[in-house]
Amino acid sequence: CQACGEGHYSAFEGLSVCDDCEIGRYSNLPIASECQLCPAGSYQDGLQATSCIECSLGHASGNVTGRTTACPICLAGKFAADINGNPTNRSGVHCMNCSAGSYSIEASSSCQACGEGHYSEFDGLSECKDCERGRYSNLPIASDCSLCSPGSYQDGLQATSCIECSLGHASGNV
Prior knowledge:
two-stranded antiparallel ribbon, mainly beta, single chain
């Protein structure tokens, strides 16, 4: 008997005919009785495969084995994550929402903090908003901006602090 070779298999011992590994499957062994399904985070779109192709940066397979087409892109507001939900640069399994206070562009492998003076209220957003007049945020990750306290004000956007009123003056929120 002759070995089938990598990318092939023989389901029954003693057969002289070898079959090709189908799409979504692979074999990296010279003698195999079956081809393995590509694991989650990868795919294989060709026959006779000896390995699987990892999902591209910012793409995820879903929790699917034996994927036969390229992994879909993670949309803006999401990031590619491993099986445990942790950001990953390769072999993404899930597209997870960025948490409030952060954002992402399409095909991201992680989320970015909004930064001081900015915020995002909800999970899964693709951009952050500026803190409005009378509000501020001195946190890099914020889901809202704080109101200036009585006796202080802020007349600019993207503020990281408020300005104390001058002696003899008062803010409108006293």
